């Protein structure tokens, strides 16, 4: 996630397929100058990044993926995060399957 944070900040300002060179340059400068939000209560991109990082710290991959996907929907950032969201969901499914199989193995060993 750390790898794509900078791009999310930059491309969250653009609609899909939109923005020329000047718009991209201004967005890059704005994303570098933007003050980082400490709380998670807002709906700005920094609040979203903070929420996603909190979910990741708690091991809630599916929630992190959902939060990020919903927040960047309708922007160019949606294209950037699509791969990460898919990988996060796949990992969450895999981890859930491992927990299920471990529980099943434990129940079999007890009988």
How many DSSP-defined strands?
Answer: 0
Q: Cα-atom Rg, whole angstroms? A: 18 Å
| Biggest beta-sheet profile | none
Mean pLDDT: 81
Q: Which structural class should the secondary elements be placed in? A: mainly alpha
Percentage of helical residues? over 70%
Strand content is under 5%
Judging from the principal axes of the Cα atoms, what is the shape?
elongated
Runs with pLDDT <50, length 5+?
Answer: none
State the order of secondary-structure elements, H for helix, E for strand. HHHHH
Question: How many separate helices?
Answer: 5
- Number of spatially distinct domains: 1
Report the end-to-end length measured between terminal Cα atoms: 43 Å
GO biological process, one term: cristae formation
Family: Belongs to the MICOS complex subunit Mic60 family.
Pfam family, one: Mitofilin
Subcellular location: Mitochondrion inner membrane
